[in-house]
Amino acid sequence: MATSRHRRPPVPFWCGGVSAMAAACFTHPIDLIKVHLQTSTRRTRALRTMRAIVHETGVLGLYSGLSAALLRQGTYTMTRFAVYDLAKAKLASEGRPPTGAQLAAATLLSGVAGGVVGNPAEILNVRMQNDQALPAHRRRNYRNAAHGLVVMLRSEGVRALAIGLAPSLVRATLATASQFVSYDLLKARLLRAGYPDSVSVHFAASFAAGLVATTVCSPADVIKSRVMASLRRSGSARRVPGMWQTARDIWRAEGLHAFFKGWVPAYMRLCPQLVITFVIYEKLRKVYFARYR
Predict the structure, then answer these.
(1) Which of 62, 53, 74 is closest to 26 using CA atoms?
(2) What is the pLDDT of residues 52-104, one digit of tens each?
(3) 3 CB contacts (<8 Å, ≥6 apart)?
(4) In this structure, what is the dihedral angle of CA atoms 188, 194, 197, 201, given to the nearest 10 degrees?
(5) What's the pLDDT tens digit per position in 140-188?
(6) Total-model pTM
(7) Which of 107, 170, 214, 262 is the S-S candidate for 38 at Cβ 3.0 to 4.6 Å?
(8) How many helices (H) and strands (E) does the chain have?
């Protein structure tokens, strides 16, 4: 009876979302610059892009689309964390850490779930951030995430919620594998080496996970951004380009390097994003599980 009474439950589903939303408030300007670079067909640099944004819209322009970014973290990231933790707990043997195959299964489940749930917010996030890079007559001018969702549904229909879903699912699965699995493995190795379970370990593991994740996800991220940023006028029969067509177009027109456009700002955003997210997440876990000691 005592054992069952003190058995630890799964990590609360909201921990990952709250942690990621807090991190997004700090890293959003870098994410904005990254999207501008990824959706541009011209070669340009991060600093030049930042200066252009500030010159046109002011410093607050660097936080354009923040509501969509918070919605994205509250749907996409929260779902990935929740499903990944739950899947690990269900798949792992009693008292044993999950195997590589079990981590792969948890990654696939959480990546697909997060990609599906978070895709509408992902579209809004990309569009609101990319709006400043478009000519004035082609801008969507979403006031916030809620307004953008209503306008998108009215002008493009319910099917618009699935725009870019294929590259989004690929990226979500790659992101979960490269972020969560690499973080878990690196953290476990540091703990086995004798380091205490502290902020320094969480920082080191998340810092390295950011490097892995940025490189692995960059091609899928560029394709996703291009597909989601594509314009489709209300009532137009023109189809949004698919994942493979977009990949072929990028390859033929811009070459291999284009799949890694925005790598530097992507890493500059993802590294602090993961560090802040995982440090807050670990703190929330410890506070929550303190009652089960």
Answers:
(1) 62
(2) 888 888 888 889 889 988 999 999 999 999 999 888 878 766 667 777 778 88
(3) none
(4) -70
(5) 888 899 999 999 999 999 988 988 888 888 888 888 888 888 898 899 8
(6) 0.76
(7) 262
(8) 12, 0
Which among 132, 129, 134 is positioned nearest to 65, based on CA atoms? 129
CB atoms under 10 Å from CB of 259, counted, come to: 18
- Out of 10-14, 91-95, 104-108, least confident range: 91-95
Q: What is the DSSP string of the chain?
A: -HHHHT---PPPTHHHHHHHHHHHHHHHHHHHHHHHHHH-SS---HHHHHHHHHHHH-GGGGGTTHHHHHHHIIIIIHHHHHHHHHHHHHHSPTTSPPPHHHHHHHHHHHHHHHHHHHHHHHHHHHHHHHGGGS-GGG-----SHHHHHHHHHHHH-GGGGGTTHHHHHHHHHHHHIIIIIHHHHHHHHHHHTT--SSHHHHHHHHHHHHHHHHHHHHHHHHHHHHHHH----TT--PPPP-HHHHHHHHHHHH-GGGGGTTHHHHHHHHHHHHHHHHHHHHHHHHHHHGGG-
Interacting residues of 252 by C-beta distance below 8 A, sequence separation 6+ = none
Task: Check if the beta carbon of residue 109 is closer than 8 Å to that of residue 47.
Answer: no
